[in-house]
Every structure is written in structure tokens, then in C-alpha cells.
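Page 47, continued from p. 46.
Same chain as before, 874 aa.
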Amino acid sequence: MATKTRDLLRHDLPDPLRRDVRLLGGLLGDGLVEYGGQGLLDDVERLRHAVIAARRGEIPGEEVTALVDGWSLERAGLVARAFTVYFHLTNLAEEHHRIRTLRERDTGEVVPSSVAAAVEEIRASTGDRLAEVLDGLEVRPVFTAHPTEARRRAVVTAIQRISDLLTVLDRGPGVAERADTERRLREEIDLLWRTALRRTTQMDPLDEVRTAMAAFDETIFRVVPRIYRALDAAIDPEGTGAVPPHVRAYLRFGSWIGGDRDGNPFVTAQTTRDAVGIQAEHVLRALENTCARIGRELTVHETTTPPSDALLNALAAARTAHPERMAAIDRRSPGEPHRRLLMHAAERIAATRERNADLAYASPDELLTDLRTVQDSLAAAGAARQAWGRVQHLVWQVETFGFHLAELEIRQHSELHEKAVEQVRAGGERDEMTDEILETLRVVAWIQRRFGVAACSRYVVSFTRSAQDIANVHELAASLGENAPVLDVIPLFETGEDLERAPSVLAGMLELPAVRRRLDATGRRLEVMLGYSDSAKQLGPTSATLRLYDTQEALAEFAAAHDIVLTLFHGRGGSLGRGGGPANRAILAQAPGSVAGRFKVTEQGEVIFARYGHPEIARRHVEQVTNAVLMASTDAVQDRARAAAARFRPLADKISEAARSSFRSLIEADGFAAWFAQVSPLGEIADLRIGSRPARRKAARGLEDLRAIPWVFAWTQTRVNLPGWYGLGSGLAAVSSDGAALTELQDAYASWPLFQTLLDNAEMSLAKSDRSIAARYLELGGRPELTETVLAEYDRTLRLVLAVTGHDRLLENRKVLSRAVELRNPYVDALSHLQLRALTALRAGVEDETERGHLDDLLLLSVNGVAAGLQNTG
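Result:
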């Protein structure tokens, strides 16, 4: 069966993808021979054939182990590097094919999950309510520096260059160009092979800021107006670009990078100030270049397109204030007044970046005034397409990004505010942390004076337990007097207990004068953040999912009762064990009433470049999110979800209780934390240097203070993927004792989006697991009873998930994903065997420092490779 499945899946690969994988793999093989001789390629091939044979049951896994153990550590390291580079190339080929597919599907037909599909469905179901639904639309992706991107930036850029060369081949070049392109491909793949695949120095927070800027520079800034245009075209296909747009800028990007100091001592007030400066530099350069380019292109003459009085007045004022600059512009643009104002605007944007107060814009609104003056003048002169085309794209970019690019959000732990308030009240000497918190608040006030309140006003309080935790931040800000910033203090509920008491905390917040003042100033807008990672680590994936759903439902009811415009901020990770998975499915699974046109979510680590690394993929991702937010806000979708929840919730409660009991029983077992550290590369992951933040919030070594990212990352490496499914099998077993109960579960899966998403995500986690390899990792802990417990739950979960979904095999209904996982798994197996060799030796103890160094290198290289192969870290 395994043989047949794999052969069928390989045969089922689309021809262009098969061609790219074969080409890149062949060039890598040639490079291996050039680097290490035919023997290196032969060893790689021997391992490749062995793991495939083991998957098929043709040889025992012990033969693969013997093969790997027979190599020197240096040779094992080269083989691990080969498989890791192969995964980077395969990932690239799959992404490239996805882009190719998106372009091929762009035929003018309505694509499922697109903004056009949402508009079509809303019009069909609600008629004239489309404008009302769109008016409340707000999507806020927030980039974080959570350390889950295992690739170096040098590796990412090398892969992008290879991608560009594949694009050239797609065009069908001539013989000479094709030969040169293939030569350059060999050169780039050789460079990737010779590049260190992991960092040797620790990142600092500003490195993380600059890394994120690549996504804004190369993709997001350019894609945003295309997304708005697509929605506008869906609303008015004939009029878009010729009439004022029907779409306002509904995207607002946020960032925690340089602002999140919860447990990260390297993020300081100065870091936050520097981070905003870096962001502003990037966005102002982008706006300047765009404005100048449009200005150069807008060559409409005053005889064909007479300027309005408002535009002439704006130019006259500019000449009075800056006669020499305007004289130069006038000479370059005779008879082109619209062009002159845009060129002057570009110079003013440059002055804003250079902090030339005499010429700079005081705010983005001033720039928008100039742009709209140009638009209105063009429209009045009959040049509607010039008014609502490229100039409108620039307007959308200014509205979306301002002069700060993304709102920088501050996050800090509630306990530190409590101590700081005590010291401020007492007067006298304060400790270093209290001074740092106060200085951070001063920096927030400085950012607001420099870039406006929208640039930095949200202050997230992690581990919020009561309204007093919110009051403490307001009190600390008020202690600064005239230097106090404007703050929207956001509670972050992370543990199961905190999620349960969230409505009562909000009730207490409404009694705080500072909160009431902000509600009055913002139209009673309030934001609440929900933490997926820590709740899942505490309760297990099943119970955490249902607890979060209950909290969403309760908060939506609270908001409606108190006339609050609520935005729920979803603190999701990239992995399934931290709330990850397809974003559009997750949105449609939210509690009815909890979306209401507004969605805010964290985008972390490898997810940032997976979703925003290429314009076509970024556009598709944001369109899918927009589609889901719009659809989740309609009465029809909410009514169906509400009816399903009412019918199946008693069943889900029984599942949740049994699942939570199973999960807690495991992690509360005596010595579990030590066993987990022994069976996984948990301690070694910190040496990957994939982020500036420590793996633990404190110096303690218990499980409670371990961050969710290394918790998930380490389980992923063991091929257990425990955080994505553990406990679900026990939960399903508790309610599936007979055929009638199983039918009820199958009905729930078919009609309740929440339950469907829960099982689909567990199925994906199971598909990326491997029982036999996982067993070898678990045996390293010397606790056979814990190994047996985990594997029994794996078997139970696998059996019952398949029974409820009605699938004969995992991911049966997701053809593309199933194909990718099945074809990748043997190659991930190869890296797992190499990692097990290193981990087994290190756990046994190695006295020779040179040997230990080689083992550490092999382990970390294999960790990087497994992350690339599974496309998941934390």
C-alpha cells in the first residue's frame, strides 16, 4: 500500500513541478559530485533509497540506523547538509508552482475564497447590505519576532535568486539564454551549498526589525493597492479606475518587533525608538520613490487637462515657501501643473525622512491633502482615469502605512507593572526594570509626537489577571505628567483560568476612568488579545480550542451588552500546536458575533516569509483572509455556526473534559519535564540562534515557564508532534462507544466549522508524525511507561480521527497537501535518523570535545533540515 501510494502521488505531480524538482535535484547532485566526489552523492542516494524502502516495509528501520551509524561524523554532516539543501530547493519548487498556478487561475473567473467570491456571495445573500459590511471591514496582521524562522537571511535571499532564475526558464527562453540561466542556477545552488545554513552569532532585536523590513520592501508595500483594486473591481468591474473607489483602506499592519519585551531583556526603550526609526526610513523611501515615479509619468498638459483653482493655489503656496525648489521643478515640467505638485510632494516626503522641518510634512494627512488636490483637479478636468488610477494606489498606500509603516505595539508582563507601580507610589529609589518601563512610556510619547498616535499606542499586558493589571499601566503613564503617552492598554488572556475570567476583567476595566476616556475618544472601541500558545500548552489542543471559543462567545456577548466595538486579537503561532493552520478556515470557525468585520492576528517567524515572501502568494493570502472575515460576519454563516454549536456543544464538552484529563495526566507525571528534555533536542534548540528572545521567561527550569515555541519546536523534531493532537483520541473515545455516537461525531464534523477545523488540524499533525521514528526518540528518556502512554494515545487518536472524518488515510480529502507530505516524509526520515545518531550519542555522554563538537553540529544541522522538510518549527 505504501509503495502504491507513493508511486501514485509521484506520478500525480503536475508536470511543471516534477520538471522543476528534477532539475534542481539534478543540479544539486552535480554540485555534490563537484564538491565531495561521486562517493558523497552515492552515500546520499544510499540513504534516500533506504528510507524509502523502510517506509514501504521492504527493510527494517534498523538497517537505516546501521547505514547512518557507519559513516564518520564529518560524512554524516555532509549528508545532512545535502538533504537540508534539497528541502530548501523542493520548498522553492513547490512555492514556484503555487505562484504559477495562481497566475494560470487568473482568467477573469471568480476564484474561490477571493474577495470577488465574497462580494458575489454577500450580494446574493444580503442584497443591498454589501456597503454596510464593507464599511466595517478591518484586517490587522501583526508581525512578531517570535523565533520560528530557522533559515538565515542569507539562505532566504539565495533561494529567492534561484526562484528568479526558474521564472526565466518558465518564459521559454532561447537556447543561449536557457544555457546561461542553467549555468547561473548551478552557480547559485553551489553558493547555497557552501553557505552556512545556521547562524553563528545571536540575533539582536534590530536585526529582527531589518529582516522583517524585507517583506515590506519587496512585497507588502506593492501588493496592498492591488488587493484594494481587486476588491474595488469586484464591486464595480466597469467603473474601477474611472470613478472614485468604493473601497477604503481597510488593512493596517502592526509589529511587535522591537516592542515586545515580555521575557526579552534585549528589547529596551532605545530599541523601540530605533525600531520605529527603521520602519519610518523604509516607508518614507518607498512613498518618496512611488510619488516621484508617478509624478514623472503624469505628463498631462494644462491645455488638455486644466488645473483646478485649489491645485494652482497649492502650487502658489509652495513657490512662496520654497521658491528655488519650485523654480527647478517648473523648469523640468513646463505646462504640467499636476506633475509639479506631485514632484514637490516627493521632495517633501524626502524632507520628512531627512527631518528637514522647513520642508517636511507634519503628518500623513498633509500628504493626503496634496494627493487629493491632484485627484480632484484631474477628475474635474475630465481625466478621471488619471485621478483614480495610479494616484489612487499611492493614496491607499499612504492611508495604510502612514509615515510609520506598521504600528509598533508594546508588550510587557503584568507582574513587572505591579512592582513598578509600588516603587513609583513609594517614591525614592527605583530599580532598573521600573526605570526601563517608564522610559519606554516616554519613548511611546515621543513616537506619537513624531509620527502620530496611530504609530504606537497599543500596550499589551501579558498574563492579565484582573482589571488592576490594566490600571497599573495607566497609572505608570500618568506618573509622567505632560510626557504621558496616549495608550490603548490591551489585556492578553493566555492561561485557561485567565480566559475564563476575561469577561469579568473587562467589566472591571469599564470602571477605570482612563479606559472610559479612551472609549469616548475612539467611539467605544476596545481590543482584547487571546493567547493560543500557552493555553494549548496548559490544557492541550482540544480543550484549549474549546476554551478559546467559549471566551470569544462570552466577550462578543459582553461587548453587545455594553455597546462596545470589540476587536479580538488572536495570538496564533505558525504551528498547529500554537493555533496555526489555514487562516481562512480558522476565521470561519470563530464564535458567531466575535468577528463582526474585524480581524487581528499575529504573523510569526517562518509564517511571515511563507505568506508575504512573494507578491502573488501575499495577495492570495490577504484575499483569503478578507474573504473569510467578510463571510464570517454575515448572518447566514453565523446562524449556521450558532445552530451547529448549540446542537453539538454537549458532545464537545465531554470530549474536552476527557482530552484535558489525558493531556494533564501526561505532563503532570513525575519527571515529565526532565524526560521531555532528554528525548528531544529542547536544550540544543537555543543554539540555533534563530531569535533574540530567550527560550524561557525566567531562570527556572520547570515546564510552566518554558515558552510555547520551543515546546512545539522540540516535539516537531521528535516526529511526535504531540502539541497538535495529544488528548483528542481520549476525548473522542469518551463519546464514541457505539455506532450512534460515532454518527453524531461525523455529523458534527460535517456541519460545525470549529469541530471540523479541530480534527483537520489534528489530522495534519498526525500526517507529519512518524510512529516508528518517534518511538526511538521517546526511548531515549528511559521511561517506558511514558513512551507507552504517548504511543497508545497516538494510535487511539489516529484510529478515531480517521473514523470520524471517514477517511481511509490521513489527508485523503486534501490532495495537494497529502501529496506534498507523503513525498517529503521519507526525506525527513533521513534527517531524523541522522539527528537520532547525534542525540543518542550526546545523551549517553561524550567526553572528547572534538567529537562532541561534531555531534552538536550534526544535531543542529539536522534540526534545521527537519524544520525545512516539515515546513514547521514553533
